[in-house]
């Protein structure tokens, strides 16, 4: 009461005002009451009013009532109303209370008269909410604020009115930036047209739950969201706004997409993909497993994995499971499994541990590939290869023996025909001389053929890992020396730069050069032969080209000329056995190179071959 | 033999040709040689393909006999095998010649050899 006495004293000079109730009476009224000047200055306030703001009269009196109003435009309106010096019926305002919370109140103003003259207002202030409601509101606000979901409200025209921290996190807009702006800001262009429709349905009282759509963050990022949208109803069930709860489902969606993709891969795999738990119980079984092992998924799910064991492999399962339990992988393990109809398959297994999201091993995934067919093919291939090698080596042996053994009788023919010529030449008549000469020509030709065949059969012997490195320069010069007579006789000009070192036997490379150059000389045109040898690196190989200006080779024969005894000309036109290029091909291939020709009829020929280099 | 005889008749009418026609006999002939008298042969021609003992054996036997090793020796063969050639050349005293297929060529080659030796 002492405060009131002080108050009375301090406000003493105004006491003479009459025509209104006594302040002492008013002081104890449960209604918030204050006396306010026409400029808004607070002149006096009762206990209820002071308690509401948490101020003493000394602190409160003298301040302007408009300063407590939450928003500037309402404050300006209030000042304007007060300056009218007219009573006013309740106006709704938001004011800051003692805890600086914004509270809705209604203000009523009645004039206080001094005689007939209005001197001030008696203003009553009615709190729209009681304390229990305020506390509940505070709790709800705290829940809303701390939610991981974005929770926001919008008014019926689609403007954002509230915005929690979850919304700030999800969409990237701070509350002050988005409140009062249209919600459509959050809709990506392609879903923007759905927004008005949704708002209209909600305003009509509908509720949308777990509606999945996309929203767009402040940074333009698309966010997959699940929305729950409800109308906010007042006490008369009128819709006064819309609340929206948005949950980020980007991760969930991504996870479910990648899961779907993985599932599709597993299902479409040709391999059997099976998962089992640590007890060996089958937990999944794809179509590949159905196809390879013959059991349908529903027949084996829940059964022990040993159902597919081949009799002698039952013991493997505990070993595999114990390795898996230790976190080890089993890779490309060749073993045998049994199908539903009892066939035994050769399979390759890869088994890996399956872990839960905490990293604990909860089972195993097993990829099983049927190798039976492949094993059969490999076996067939091996056998075919062995047969081929046998027949090749038989053939080489045959060629060697035949050419070797044929030499002897040929020598006898040669010797006696030679004797015949020496002893009786010129005595048997010109026809006999001619026959003898034909016989000797045939003998000589046969001798050359057998010699070449022998060489060809001989050249089949592989290098057998033997390390040979030949200076192509030296081999080239040896070949030139062997061909000295032919070069001089034809007037051939042969050019070559420096040649590299390559992996082939010296005699073989010498033979290749010799055959190619002697061909270039033999198949010359009208001009003297011009032969150029060039080289170029090709990866780790060297490319050699022997170019001439001779008669060339029709493209349609360019494969054929490398065959044994293949000749495009009669030996009368151009002498030769038809073995030269076959030998070249064999020697080059033996050294892991390739040989081919580039030519056109009448335009010279370029024979190219590759050989592995020193590296 | 026929060819050698023909070549000798061409290049050395005074030469006498002794023919030993199998390997065993050739080995015995080698054993009979000694250095006291004049060497019986001015030139030995060995064929690698002989009945009973091979030409290689005969050559090795000659190499072991001090006198024989001094007689000019040629190996006349139809073989072009490098192995045969290497084996002959390793002995160090005989020349390895491959018979040309045609008689005329053979006689010419023999002429060259005989002029060198005699």
Structure, explained:
The complex is a heterodimer of chains A (615) and B (118). Chain A is an alpha+beta fold. In chain A, 26% of the residues are buried. Chain B has 118 residues and is mainly α. Helix content of chain B is 47%, strand content 11%. Chain B has 5 helices and 3 strands, in the order H-H-E-H-E-H-E-H. A 3-stranded parallel sheet of chain B has the order 1-2-3, with helices on one face. Chain B starts with a helix and ends with a helix. Chain A binds chain B through residues 407-408, 410-411, 414-415, 417-419, 421-422, 440, 443-444, 447, 451, 454, and chain B through 2-3, 6, 78, 80, 99, 101-104, 106.
Annotation keywords:
heterodimer, A: 615 residues, alpha+beta, 5-stranded antiparallel sheet, 19 helices, B: 118 residues, mainly alpha, 3-stranded parallel sheet, 47% helix, globular
Ordered list of secondary-structure elements with their pairings:
The complex is a heterodimer of chains A (615) and B (118).
Chain A: H1 2-10, H2 23-27, E1 32-36, E2 42-45, H3 47-53, H4 57-60, H5 72-83, E3 88-96, E4 102-114, E5 117-127, H6 131-146, E6 150-154, E7 160-163, H7 165-171, H8 175-178, H9 194-203, E8 208-216, E9 222-233, E10 239-248, H10 250-268, E11 272-277, E12 282-285, H11 287-293, H12 297-300, H13 316-325, E13 330-338, E14 344-355, E15 361-370, H14 372-424, H15 430-458, E16 470-471, H16 472-482, H17 484-490, E17 493-496, E18 501-502, H18 506-522, E19 530-538, E20 541-547, H19 580-590, E21 595-599, E22 605-612
Parallel strand pairs in A: 17-19
Antiparallel strand pairs in A: 1-2, 1-5, 3-4, 4-5, 6-7, 6-10, 8-9, 9-10, 11-12, 11-15, 13-14, 14-15, 16-18, 19-20, 20-22, 21-22
Helix pairs in contact in A: 14-15, 16-18, 18-19
Chain B: H1 2-11, H2 23-32, E1 44-46, H3 55-64, E2 73-77, H4 82-91, E3 94-98, H5 103-117
Parallel strand pairs in B: 1-2, 2-3
Helix pairs in contact in B: 1-5, 2-3
């Amino acid at each position: 009461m002492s405060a009131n006495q002080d108050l009375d004293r301090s406000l003493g000079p105004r006491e003479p005002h009459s025509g209104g109730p006594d302040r002492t009476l008013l002081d104890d009224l449960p209604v918030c009451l204050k006396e306010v000047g026409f400029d808004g200055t607070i002149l006096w306030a009762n206990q209820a009013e002071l308690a509401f703001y948490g101020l003493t009269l000394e602190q409160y009196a003298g301040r302007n009532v408009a300063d407590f109003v939450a928003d500037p435009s309402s404050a300006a309106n209030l000042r304007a109303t007060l300056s009218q010096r007219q009573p006013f019926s309740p106006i709704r305002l938001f004011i800051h209370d003692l805890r600086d919370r914004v509270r809705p109140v209604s203000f009523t103003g009645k004039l206080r008269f001094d005689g007939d003259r209005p001197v001030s207002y008696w203003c009553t202030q009615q709190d729209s909410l009681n304390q229990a409601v305020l506390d509940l509101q505070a709790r709800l606000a705290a829940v809303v604020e701390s939610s991981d979901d974005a929770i926001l409200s919008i008014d019926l025209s689609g403007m954002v009115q509230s915005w929690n921290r979850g919304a700030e996190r999800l969409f990237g807009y701070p509350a002050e930036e988005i409140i009062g702006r249209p919600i459509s800001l959050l809709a990506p262009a392609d879903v923007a047209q759905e927004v008005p429709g949704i708002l209209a349905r909600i305003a009509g009282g509908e509720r949308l739950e777990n509606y999945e759509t996309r929203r767009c963050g402040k940074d333009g990022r698309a966010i997959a969201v699940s929305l729950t949208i409800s109308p906010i109803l007042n006490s008369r069930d009128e819709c006064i706004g819309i609340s929206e709860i948005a949950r980020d489902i980007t991760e969930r969606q991504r996870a479910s997409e990648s899961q779907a993709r993985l599932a599709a891969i597993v299902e479409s795999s040709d391999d059997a993909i099976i998962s089992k738990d640590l007890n060996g119980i089958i937990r999944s079984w794809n179509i590949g497993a159905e196809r390879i092992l013959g059991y349908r998924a529903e027949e084996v799910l829940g059964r022990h994995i040993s159902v597919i064991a081949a009799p002698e492999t039952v013991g493997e399962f505990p070993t595999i499971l114990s390795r898996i339990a230790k976190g080890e992988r089993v890779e490309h393990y060749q073993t045998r499994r049994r199908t539903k109809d009892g066939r035994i398959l050769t399979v390759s297994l890869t088994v890996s541990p399956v872990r839960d999201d905490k990293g604990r091993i909860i089972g195993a995934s097993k990829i099983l590939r049927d190798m039976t067919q492949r094993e059969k093919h490999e076996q067939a291939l091996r056998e075919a290869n062995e047969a081929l090698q046998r027949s090749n080596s038989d053939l080489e042996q045959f060629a060697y023996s035949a050419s070797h053994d044929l030499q002897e009788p040929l020598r006898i023919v040669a010797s006696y025909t030679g004797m015949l010529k020496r002893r009786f030449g010129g005595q048997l008549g010109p026809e006999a001389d001619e026959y003898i000469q034909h016989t000797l020509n045939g003998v000589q030709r046969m001798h050359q053929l057998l010699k070449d065949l022998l060489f060809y059969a001989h050249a089949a012997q592989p290098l057998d890992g033997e390390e040979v490195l030949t200076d192509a320069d030296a081999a080239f010069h040896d070949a030139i020396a062997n061909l000295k007579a032919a070069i001089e006789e034809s007037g051939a000009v042969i050019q070559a730069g420096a040649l590299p070192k390559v992996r082939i036997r010296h005699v073989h490379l010498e033979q290749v050069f010799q055959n190619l150059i002697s061909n270039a000389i033999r198949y010359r045109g009208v001009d003297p032969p011009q032969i150029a040898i060039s080289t170029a690196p090709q990866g780790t190989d060297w490319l050699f080209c022997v170019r001439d200006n001779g008669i060339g080779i029709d493209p349609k024969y360019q494969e054929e000329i490398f065959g044994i005894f293949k000749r495009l000309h009669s030996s009368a036109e151009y002498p030769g056995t038809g073995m030269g290029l076959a030998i070249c091909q064999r020697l080059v291939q033996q050294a892991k190179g390739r040989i081919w020709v580039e030519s056109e009829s009448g335009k010279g020929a370029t024979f190219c071959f590759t050989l592995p280099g020193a590296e | 033999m026929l060819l050698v005889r023909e070549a000798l008749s061409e290049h050395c009418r005074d030469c006498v040709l002794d023919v030993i026609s199998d390997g065993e006999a050739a080995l015995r002939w080698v054993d009979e040689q000694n250095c006291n008298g004049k060497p019986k042969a001015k030139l030995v021609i060995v064929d690698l393909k002989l009945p009973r003992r091979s030409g290689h054996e005969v050559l090795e036997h000659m190499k072991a006999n001090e006198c024989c090793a001094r007689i000019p020796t040629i190996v006349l063969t139809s073989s072009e095998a490098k192995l045969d050639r290497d084996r002959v050349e390793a002995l160090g005293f005989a020349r390895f010649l491959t018979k040309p297929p045609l008689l005329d060529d053979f006689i010419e080659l023999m002429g060259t050899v005989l002029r060198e030796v005699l």
